[in-house]
């Protein structure tokens, strides 16, 4: 059962006895909702994504530290991978280095850490790709414009039974794409942040080709047909409503089978 639904039946201070009493009371309610139990394999698949997310955050922290430390000595580079390669080349110089010896030693350690983190991310991504190729549902989800290997495997692993949702609208609300009131202390919270971020990134990649992690950055010419499913003028239309549509299509493919078909093909 969702913990927030059981919380309403806790009558006094939180402890094991009060929690057990609240669970016994909540489970007898006819309108109570229950969470589908994930298998050990599904939990392991989700752990791959969580570990990758952690390593990617650490990689960003190391890159920002490298840039900040080198900027103190007036050494800067352009944004993106090419800029990082340029900075790493400067750090790798041992003779004629533009850095003091102590600074050079510290930055060498950070550069080694960045390389190690990148190697670990690559090893996890290889396992995710192998997981994707062996999962029929994940391969069908990848046919949706804007959803790549990372997004497809995430959705396939986090939804053990798509029929637990009555419709694609319920699935989108569970992810947190459609607004719902869930506030505390003036702060709004919506659904599962990872799934919401995946769908949102995919939608914006359809609006403007950008290298979002785990999402296929599609340009209009790479999208099959003139998809009336998406905005006609992607340069002027806001893609803010696209994550909701993507979530509904994903649920339809999981619950009913098949692959994504362009609207004009369906009409034909």
Task: Describe this structure as you would to a colleague.
This protein is an all-alpha fold and 268 residues long. 57% of the residues lie in helices and 1% in strands. Strands 1-2 form a two-stranded antiparallel ribbon. The protein is extended and about 75 Å long. The protein contains eleven helices and two strands, in the order ααααααααββααα. It has two domains: 94 residues; 132 residues, no CATH class. A hairpin with a 2-residue loop joins strand 1 and strand 2. About 14% of the residues have low confidence. Helix 8 crosses helix 10. The longest helix is centred in the middle third of the chain and has 33 residues. The two termini are 45 Å apart.
Computed Rg: 23 Å
Low-confidence stretches: 202-238
Binned strand content: under 5%
Number of helices: 11
**Euclidean distance between termini CA atoms:** 45 Å
Number of domains: 2
Helical content class = 55-70%
- The overall pLDDT, averaged over residues, is 77
Q: Could you give a short account of the major beta sheet?
A: 2 strands, antiparallel
Quick tags:
mainly alpha, 11 helices, 1% strand
């Amino acid at each position: 059962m969702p913990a927030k639904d059981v919380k309403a039946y806790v009558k006094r201070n939180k402890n094991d006895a009060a929690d057990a009493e609240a669970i016994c009371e909540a489970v007898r309610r006819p309108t109570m909702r229950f969470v589908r139990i994930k298998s050990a394999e599904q939990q392991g698949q989700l752990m791959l994504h969580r570990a990758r997310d952690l390593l990617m955050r650490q990689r960003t922290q190391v890159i920002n530290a490298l840039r900040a430390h080198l900027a103190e000595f007036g050494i800067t580079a352009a944004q993106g991978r090419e800029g990082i390669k340029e900075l790493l080349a400067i750090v790798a110089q041992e003779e004629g280095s533009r850095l003091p010896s102590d600074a050079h030693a510290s930055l060498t350690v950070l550069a080694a850490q960045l390389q190690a983190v990148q190697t670990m991310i690559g090893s996890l991504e290889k396992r995710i790709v192998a997981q994707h190729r062996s999962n029929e549902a994940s391969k069908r989800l990848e046919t949706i414009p804007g959803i790549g290997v990372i997004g497809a495997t995430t959705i396939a692993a986090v939804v053990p039974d798509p029929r637990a949702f009555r419709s694609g609208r319920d699935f989108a609300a569970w992810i947190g794409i459609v607004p719902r009131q869930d506030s505390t202390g003036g702060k709004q919270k919506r659904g599962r942040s990872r799934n919401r971020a995946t769908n949102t990134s995919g939608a914006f990649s359809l609006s403007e080709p950008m290298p979002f992690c785990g999402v296929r950055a599609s340009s209009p010419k790479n999208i099959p047909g003139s998809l009336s499913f998406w905005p006609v003028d992607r340069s002027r239309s806001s893609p803010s409503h696209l994550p909701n549509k993507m979530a509904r299509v994903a649920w339809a493919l999981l619950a009913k089978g098949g692959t994504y078909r362009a609207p004009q093909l369906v009409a034909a």
